[in-house]
Design a protein that fits this description.
This protein is of the alpha/beta class. It has 17 helices and 19 strands. The strands form 4 sheets. It has a 6-stranded antiparallel beta sheet, sandwiched between helices. It has a 6-stranded mixed beta sheet with strand order 13-14-12-17-18-19, with helices on both faces. It is globular, with a radius of gyration of 29 Å.
Length: 508
């Protein structure tokens, strides 16, 4: 499906940039100098960019056709225009994103790719994550910068302080363009290699947070000595990071010993000899109700303490942007995972299974590796559905899924191949070892009963096992194993067959 980029405006420089980028991305590009929308105007899979110079003369009634979920409405503006645009109530909520006109073509290219990815990915609709919600995250920087500029105008009493903070804002703008991406390693590199210079910090460390388990995992740091790679919050409830996460706000400590004493807690600093000062900044990275991670900045280079008036706001601004960027990555990866897996069992779906199968067969051909395949069919699923309802059938399917997971190694690949069919790819596994897995799976399924309401389900599976032979295609390999599965079902179900040859009638 092609992507349509429409520019409504009369800025030749913007036209040229968009035209060049669309040509490199193979997007269709059209220009409308005014709001006179012709019948040729695309109605689907369209990204509409309206120049701020003519936005004031556009009536929303002209743009009703853009309300389709596949249409992105983006307002282009200069930095000088942004405050007036944000204060215009007629524009609020109408555009999905506000995009600054910048000379960085790579940033504009990434933005267009992000819009195109979100508009074409069906899973966004399943999660009810609309274009407006996604792009709203990317507007965080604009809103924060405007807010910070407003605060700067009120300072007035200290020109030197103003100049320092303004310099930091310019630096933040540069860093934000690097942070606003879907590459966690790139974000971590900015956090560790560039953000410390913003407040003259010597050391930095970035942790990701598993909120469900309450565990911090070290992602990247620049400390010359060892620091903790994993921190369990329940074991360190009084640590600065635990407190910052609990309070959901940035923690600036000017003297660690005084802070510890004021809290009435003896907080052990295992690596205190690594630092020249007792001052540090602990910044939880917030995104809505989530905290994707924590950024730590320590050791003021001049051996002084961090100043809340100069250092706190710039760090807080960047941390909000980092938190949103990390949350976007998590959402994107979740969408990608949903596209690859079955919604109920979380096993690979049919398409992903076939792609993995082709990859493993090609590897077996190239390196001469052994490769085995197990195909499984849940017996009598239709009878369960007819007699007890589809919820009972789902319970039976999840029962088989649970047993498949219990039999898998890290290198094995499992999928829900069809409605009641499953498959397991076993790389570097002999036929004999594959038979051991098949027998164990069959035994586990049939000897563990399912309690469903007042009924007790005793489920069984039929299993076909095959081993790849050099020279065969993926389809031939799968058909042979599927044929073995068919023989197992034809023989009375609850059987295992190998490549068309009978195995023992009793899998136990």
């Amino acid at each position: 499906m092609s992507t349509n980029i429409v520019y409504i405006g009369k800025d030749p420089k913007t036209e040229k940039r968009l035209s060049d980028i669309c040509e490199s991305l193979d997007y269709t590009f059209r220009i409308f100098p005014t709001v006179d929308i012709t019948p040729s105007f695309p109605k689907e899979n369209c990204i509409v960019l309206v120049d701020g110079d003519i936005s004031s003369i556009i009536e929303t009634t002209h743009l009703e056709s853009w309300k389709d979920n596949s249409v992105f409405r983006v307002l282009l503006c200069n930095r000088a225009e942004i405050i007036n645009i944000l204060e215009n109530k007629d524009l609020q909520g109408f555009y999905d994103d506000i995009l600054l006109k910048v000379d960085d073509l790579s940033l504009l290219k990434k933005k267009l790719r992000l819009y195109q990815t979100a508009s074409q990915h069906k899973c966004w609709a399943e999660k009810k994550l609309t274009c407006h919600e996604l792009c709203k995250k990317n507007q965080t920087l604009t809103n924060h910068v405007v807010h910070l500029q407003g605060q700067l105008t009120q300072v007035g009493t200290n020109l030197k302080l103003q100049e320092q903070v303004i310099d930091k804002i310019h630096y933040i703008s540069q860093l934000s363009r690097q942070i606003n991406c879907l590459d966690l390693e790139k974000i971590a590199a900015v956090c560790i290699n560039q953000i410390p210079s913003l407040i003259s910090a010597r050391f930095a460390s970035l942790y990701t947070l598993d909120m469900e388990k309450g565990i911090l995992h070290l992602l990247k740091h620049n400390h010359p000595y060892s620091i903790a790679h994993t921190i369990e919050l329940k074991d360190n409830p009084h640590s600065p990071m635990a407190k910052a996460i609990e309070q959901r706000k940035l923690l600036l400590i000017q003297d660690f010993n005084e802070w510890s004493h004021s809290k009435g807690q003896n907080v052990t600093r295992k690596f205190f000899r690594n630092y020249r000062s007792n001052s540090c900044v602990i910044a939880p990275l917030l995104s809505g109700d989530k905290i994707p991670g924590v950024l730590n900045l320590a050791d003021k280079i001049d051996d002084n303490y961090f100043d809340a008036k100069i250092d706190l706001l710039p760090v807080q601004l960047l941390c909000d942007i980092i938190g949103s960027a990390m949350s976007n990555i998590e959402l994107y990866e979740e969408v990608q995972e949903r596209a690859r897996t079955d919604s109920m069992t979380r096993l690979l779906n049919h398409r992903s299974f076939y792609a993995a199968m082709k990859k493993e067969v090609n590897r077996a051909r190239r390196y001469g590796n052994i490769l085995s395949l197990i195909m499984i069919d849940l017996d009598k699923l239709k009878e369960i559905n007819d007699n007890l309802g589809h919820q009972a059938g789902d319970a039976a399917l999840m029962h088989v899924t649970k047993k498949i997971y219990s039999c898998l190694r890290e290198t094995d690949i499992a999928a829900r191949y069809g409605g009641d069919e499953f498959a397991i790819i076993l790389p570097n596994t002999s036929l004999a070892d594959a038979m051991i897995v098949a027998k164990r799976l069959s035994y586990e399924v049939s000897h563990d009963y399912i309690e469903f309401g007042d009924a007790t389900l005793n489920t069984t599976v039929s299993v076909g096992v095959g081993q790849y032979q050099q020279g065969r295609t993926v389809e031939e390999f799968m058909n042979e194993t599927d044929g073995a599965l068919f023989e197992a079902k034809s023989a009375g179900k609850n059987r295992i067959r190998v490549g068309g040859e009978e195995a023992a009638n009793d899998p136990n």
